[in-house]
Every structure is written in C-alpha cells, then in structure tokens.
C-alpha cells in the first residue's frame, strides 16, 4: 500500500514525539524525518497546530481501538472500571501522546469520540438506576479524576506507578457517582437521573420540544 506524504509526516512526528516529547516536534525536524521540504508540511497541515491535531488523532486512533474492543457487558459499572483501567494504562505507557491529547486547554476534535464513549457508559449506569449524580457531572468527575491520576504519575520521579493510588482513585470516584445495586437507588434523585436518561435515549412524541426541555430541567433540579 502506498504511503501518502501526509501519513509519512504524521508517522515521523509520532516517532519524534515518542523519542523526545513535545519539544522534539519542530516543523524542521518533522520535515527532515519524513524526507520532505518544510513548505510541504505547511501545504499539508496549514500550520504547526494542524500537524499537532493530526498527531493527536493518530494517538487517539490506537486508544479508541482499544476502547471499542472492550465492548459492552450487562454491568455498566464494571465496564466503567475496564474503561478506567485502559485509559490509565494508555496514559502511563504513552505519556508524550497523552500530554498532547489531554494535557492542553485545546480540545482536539479526535477527543470528542473518546468523551462520547465515557458519557455513553455513564448513561447506561443511569438507565440501570445506579447513578447518584447527573450524567454530565458524573462524566466530568470520572474524567477529571482519571486525568489527574495520570498527569500526577507522569510528573512523578521515575519508577513504577503506584497501583494502590490508581485503584484507590478509581474506586473512590466510582463510589461517589454510583450505587451498589439498582435496588439501593430507590431515592428520588436517583429515580430522576434514571428517568432523564431514559427520556434522552427514547424521547418519544408525547411531549413537545419545549415540554421536554422543561421536564429535563426539573429532573436535573431534583437530581441535585
């Protein structure tokens, strides 16, 4: 299969990123590693940010492939644990890629699918009646905790990551946003969260868009 100039540039940039971190990704170094002139890089990506977006997408391709391979089971909380483990493993094994993908204020387009996957797991927990807090808040808490653990360990002195910290953080955030069983989620806020998740999945035509929005707002208030 013929490798395009764009693919050569992205692969060259990815190798430089792995070997030398973000600082190694100068346009001159990437062009030289790919065997092209610098103007070719700019014609292909527009500017350095365009190149970084392409490299981040390259990293997300591997990460998302692993996420999809996990699939879904009949226990969404267990799926959340598996997703957490994969996320942390990727971040610690590919720190340079992770910093490019998640460690910057700019949210790259390739990240949106990963965020949607996490939200889908949280929505399934809500649908099962096992979510303590609104879906959006739960997704933010899980993501922020996982990212915080990874960035903390990346910044720590060289050595093996502390598995106790990884597991403790995972179980702490899961306990904060979920219940043990659907039966224990019989309180009104959990019911409101489950009802909103069900309505978002199958809105039906019994309510007008305005009524649906109003009901969603009321359910959010009850959930809080």
Automatic annotation (TrEMBL):
The keyword Metal-binding does not apply. GO terms for molecular function: DNA-binding transcription factor activity; transcription cis-regulatory region binding. SUPFAM superfamilies: Homeodomain-like, Tetracyclin repressor-like, C-terminal domain. InterPro entries: Homeodomain-like_sf, HTH-type_TetR-like_transc_reg, HTH_TetR, Tet_transcr_reg_TetR-rel_C_sf. Keywords: DNA-binding. Residues 3-63 form the HTH tetR-type domain. Transmembrane segments: none annotated. PROSITE patterns: HTH_TETR_2 (PS50977). Residues 26-45 bind DNA. This is AcrR family transcriptional regulator. It comes from Amycolatopsis umgeniensis.
């Amino acid at each position: 299969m013929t490798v395009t100039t764009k693919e050569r540039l992205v692969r060259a940039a990815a190798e430089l990123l792995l070997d030398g971190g973000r600082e190694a990704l100068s346009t001159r170094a990437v062009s030289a590693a790919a065997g092209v002139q610098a103007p070719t890089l700019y014609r292909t990506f527009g500017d350095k940010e365009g190149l970084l977006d392409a490299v981040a997408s390259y990293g997300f391709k591997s990460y998302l492939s692993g996420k999809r391979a996990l699939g879904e089971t009949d226990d969404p909380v267990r799926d959340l644990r598996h997703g957490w483990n994969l996320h942390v493993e990727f971040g610690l094994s590919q720190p340079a890629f992770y910093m490019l993908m998640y460690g910057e204020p700019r949210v790259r387009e390739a990240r949106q699918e990963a965020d949607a996957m996490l939200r889908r797991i949280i929505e399934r927990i809500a649908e099962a009646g096992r979510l303590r807090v609104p879906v959006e808040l739960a997704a933010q808490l899980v993501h922020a905790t996982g990212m915080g653990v990874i960035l903390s360990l990346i910044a720590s002195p060289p050595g093996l990551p502390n598995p106790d910290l990884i597991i403790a953080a995972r179980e702490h955030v899961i306990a904060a946003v979920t219940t043990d069983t659907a039966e224990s989620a019989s309180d009104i806020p959990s019911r409101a969260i489950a009802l909103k998740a069900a309505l978002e999945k199958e809105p039906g035509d019994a309510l007008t868009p305005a009524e649906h929005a109003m009901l969603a707002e009321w359910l959010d208030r009850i959930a809080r």
